[in-house]
Specification:
Strand order of the largest sheet: 9-10-12-11-16-17-15-14
Shape: globular
Number of strands: 18
Structural class: alpha+beta
Helix content: 55-70%
Length: 883
């Protein structure tokens, strides 16, 4: 028996050997070796390290006379990726030790030693010590255990014991295959939910995200359970997988393994996340050069999405075809269903093609659209067997779209029931590109910015789904959607509204051309064609006005209403705007944004209906006077009400106006008063601050800094200066620390911080929030540089400053402090955060209360703002401390 010192030497030797082998394989990888080849050699490396430690442990703990007997009672087995020979540079060891029931006590010391040694070599083993019965029972209880055992390979020990395990495991699988298919699919579905529900995530996990390596494993697992074979090659020989699908899986395997190997080698640890910085680096490494309107990184990610989309579609169809319950449902359809014109059969849950219908569907776009239209009309899914037959003949679809296909497609677009699902299926088939050629360019096109979360085609499909989901939603914008009589133009606009991305010209202008071509191709009536062109070309107009402009400005509302032209188009534009925001990413559209858009919609609708918008502010002012008519000092209240701006009047009910003025009536010139109101419906907190201008210079930026320093997300700010220098400022914020109503202590603490900020001359201290050490995309490649745009045409009274930037800690404080230092007075601010992209809008005047007209002064403002933000981005917040 060897000593512990010798065993430790074995561990150290294994560490050194693994390090040297990884370095050698890194060089091989850099020289361009295929990913599969490098992964096979990495697997050999891992196998040898595990075997060396296993043998060293046996030599150390078991006498020579007992060693042969013990090895007849145990089997060291590689599982999962190690068994498949798809190991990455820093993958963990995945091994199981099978043993006879009577050997448990004898090998307990070996178990503990091997576990420790593998951990010491930083292989973090997923290790199980089981009898055959324990392994098979555990597999039936836990889908994760079951899938790990599907692919196993003997490393050392008893061949007889391993063969008995494989035989028992296969028998167990055959007996329970129906239940196991569902359990495996459900388990994988739960994993997908953790890593994102779409293949089009812009920072995917190569292993876990949909369409990645884990989905490729799902096909192997289900193949083993249903057909007794795991590899795509074996499944293709059994005719369970087509030759085309098998080739696509092989190509995807090579691509993903090479990408994953590069991620591991570069990080020098396990890393499967393809973040923005890595995308830029890998695009160069993979030789992507880009094209007009498309960056190299966008080209690289299009290749990534091409593979992940193919995997997701192949695996999804394969799993559905293996589901026994779906097959039973299709067999029962003739009994419980009814035929439609002899070509299709509508069952309880699905619609399928008859034999005659299947012949018609072969490569016929008109018949495919006819089936999709019927599925939408009856609100049924298309049967798996029917869709598989369509998919096999999809390459035969014609390039020329016949008139009847256009009619069928427009009919499909008119009904919302299953529209999103069916459009996805047509996109998967390649049929959408026949009808709308611009989808070819948009397929898998990455939007490399900090705003969108999905690719262009995925965003457009999600926008349609966001609109059709409004059928049963009790919201004002949902009611507007339901009131639209002819929905097909709206649905088509949503489907194509962003297809102009990825070109040199502005995407809205390119979108106008695409809309014109689409309307002509689909032979739309002239009136609908004009509406389609307007909606696509102006799809950003309503959100820009609502979130970047003062919608209490009567002239702005009138110009907007005139440009829209009709109530029906206004309804469509509202729904398109809401759905577009919802399709950007989770949480981008919320109740507050919906209410802001509805407010703009209702104001414009009043004008289109013949009402005069300017009367609304006068009515609010009169209502406020009525609410305070019993006050003793009515003259003071009258003076204040006369100076209330429209932006305040139109967002504040008359009783609230009166209440807020009462709170400020006896306020001293060196005092401040703060109160808050939480809305459970929108989850917005409204902080209102009353004080006098004389309390401190720069009231607005100090209040903004106080709120930002507490981690609050500021959505908008109204800055109102009334009579006698009285200031009434209101901030609408969200508190990310609370998913519902913040604790009263938290609200009161914010109140105190706001008051303290006016009394204290010190800059705010911004609390640090956790951020990944990975650099932002904007740090790596300035796709969306900071921009400052000045608008002197929209408002007669104010100069409007738009700031576009990546979100940074202390950004709002930096901008508002700079505006103060420039001698500008802010009257209204709108702060919009979309994922990591910020658009801050400020309505400002100069020291005399006038617009800034001098070009030199405007250039100075623009330059100073850009400089201040640049200082902030460098890591040194301007005029502020950072904890």
């Amino acid at each position: 028996m060897s000593s512990g010192v010798n065993l430790r030497a074995a561990v150290l030797a294994a560490r050194d050997w693994l390090c040297a082998q990884r370095a050698d394989l890194h060089r091989q990888h850099q020289a361009g070796s295929p990913g599969i080849q490098v992964s096979t050699r990495l697997t050999d490396m891992l196998d040898r390290a595990v075997l060396d430690l296993y043998r060293a442990a046996i030599n150390d703990l078991i006498s020579a006379t007992d060693a042969e007997s013990i090895q007849d009672q145990i089997a060291l087995v590689a599982l999962g990726g190690q068994a498949r020979r798809e190991v990455a540079p820093f993958s963990d060891a995945d091994v199981m030790v099978l043993h006879l029931a009577g050997a448990a006590e004898q090998i307990d010391g070996l178990r503990r030693r091997l576990q420790q040694d593998l951990s010491d070599v930083r292989l973090s083993p997923g290790q199980n010590w089981w009898t055959i019965e324990q392994a098979c029972k555990g597999a039936l209880k836990d889908a994760t255990v079951f899938t790990s055992l599907i692919e196993s390979r003997l490393l050392a020990g008893s061949e007889t014991l391993f063969a008995r395990f494989q035989s028992r495991f296969r028998r167990t699988t055959r007996r329970h295959w129906r239940r196991l298919v569902g359990a495996i699919d459900q388990s994988r579905g739960e994993q997908r939910a953790q890593f994102g529900e779409t293949v089009y995530l812009l920072e995917p996990n190569v292993k876990e995200s949909p369409g990645g390596l884990r989905d490729m494993q799902l096909l192997r697992w289900v193949g083993f359970v249903r057909y007794g074979q795991a590899s795509p090659e074996s499944l293709q020989l059994l005719a369970a997988l087509s030759k085309e699908d098998q080739i696509a899986m092989r190509r995807a395997t090579e691509f993903f393994l090479r990408v994953r190997n590069e991620l591991h080698f570069h990080a020098q640890h396990a890393n499967d996340v393809l973040d923005r910085a890595e995308q830029v680096r890998l695009a160069d490494l993979f030789g992507c050069r880009g094209a007009d309107g498309i960056l190299p990184v966008e080209q690289f990610m299009r290749d990534y999405f091409r593979h992940s989309r193919a995997v997701q579609q192949i695996v999804s169809r394969f799993v559905e075809g293996a589901d026994p319950w779906i097959r039973w449902g299709e067999r029962l359809s003739p009994i419980f269903g009814h035929q439609v014109e002899g070509d299709f059969r509508v069952g309880p849950t699905r619609i399928s093609a008859t034999k005659r219908g299947l012949k018609k569907l072969r490569g016929d776009l008109v018949e495919i659209l006819r089936l999709a239209d019927l599925a939408n009309m009856y609100n049924k899914r298309i049967a798996h067997s029917t869709w598989e037959a369509i998919h096999r003949t999809a390459p035969q679809l014609p390039a020329v779209v016949p008139r009847e296909a256009s009619e069928r497609f427009l009919s499909l677009l008119s009904q919302p029931a299953r529209l999103g699902e069916l459009l996805r299926s047509l996109h998967e088939l390649g049929a959408l590109e026949k009808l709308i050629p611009a989808f070819t360019h948009a397929r898998g096109l990455l939007q490399f910015n900090e705003y969108h979360k999905y690719t262009v085609d995925e965003h457009c499909l999600r926008a349609v789904e966001a609109a059709t989901s409004l059928l049963d939603v009790p919201r004002p914008w949902a009611k507007v959607y339901r009131s639209i009589q002819e929905k097909r133009t709206l649905h088509l606009a949503l489907l194509i509204h962003d297809l102009g991305k990825g070109y040199v010209d502005d995407h809205s202008d390119v979108g106008l051309q695409i809309a014109e071509e689409t309307a002509r191709r689909l032979r739309m009536p002239p009136r609908e064609a004009e509406t389609l062109k307007f909606l696509v070309h102006k799809h950003l107009m309503m959100s820009h006005l609502a979130f970047r402009r003062d919608t209490s400005d009567d002239q702005l509302i009138v110009r907007f209403a005139v440009e829209v032209g009709s109530a029906e188009v206004l309804r469509m534009l509202l729904v398109l705007t809401c759905a577009d925001l919802a399709a950007v990413g989770p949480g981008v559209f919320n109740s507050w944004k919906g209410e802001v858009l509805i407010d703009l919609y209702e104001r414009a609708l009043r004008h289109l209906s013949g009402d005069t918008p300017s009367l609304a502010a006068d009515e609010r002012r009169a209502d406020a006077r009525t609410a305070i008519e019993r006050e003793t000092d009515t003259a003071w209240f009258e003076r204040q009400i006369d100076l209330l701006p429209s932006s305040y009047l139109m967002t504040t009910p008359a009783p609230q106006i009166a209440d807020e003025l009462r709170r400020l009536r006896n306020l001293g010139t060196s005092e401040a008063r703060v109160w808050h109101l939480y809305s459970p419906e929108t989850k917005i907190i409204e902080y209102t601050i009353g004080t006098y201008e004389s309390i401190t210079p720069g009231v607005f930026h100090k209040l903004a800094g106080a709120l930002s320093s507490q981690g609050l997300q500021i959505l908008s700010a109204n800055i109102n200066t009334l009579a006698d220098g009285l200031v009434l400022d209101r901030f609408r914020v969200q508190d990310p620390d609370f998913s519902c109503a913040p604790a009263s202590q938290r609200l009161e603490e914010i109140d105190r911080r706001l008051i303290d900020s006016l009394a204290c001359g010190e800059p705010p201290v911004f609390r640090r929030v956790w951020q990944s050490s990975t650099r932002r995309a904007s740090d790596v490649l300035h796709i969306q540089p900071t921009r400052v745009r000045i608008d002197n045409s929209t408002s007669e009274q104010f100069t409007i400053i738009d700031v576009f930037a990546c979100d940074r800690l202390g950004l709002l404080y930096t901008i508002s402090r700079t505006l103060f230092d420039l001698g500008l007075s802010v009257s209204l601010a709108k702060i919009g955060t979309y994922l990591d992209q910020v658009v801050d809008v400020f309505y400002v005047t100069d020291e005399l209360g006038d617009k800034i007209e001098n070009e030199d002064r405007l250039d100075q403002i623009r330059t100073r703002l850009l400089q201040a933000i640049q200082v902030l981005e460098s890591g040194a917040p301007a005029n502020a401390a950072q904890a």
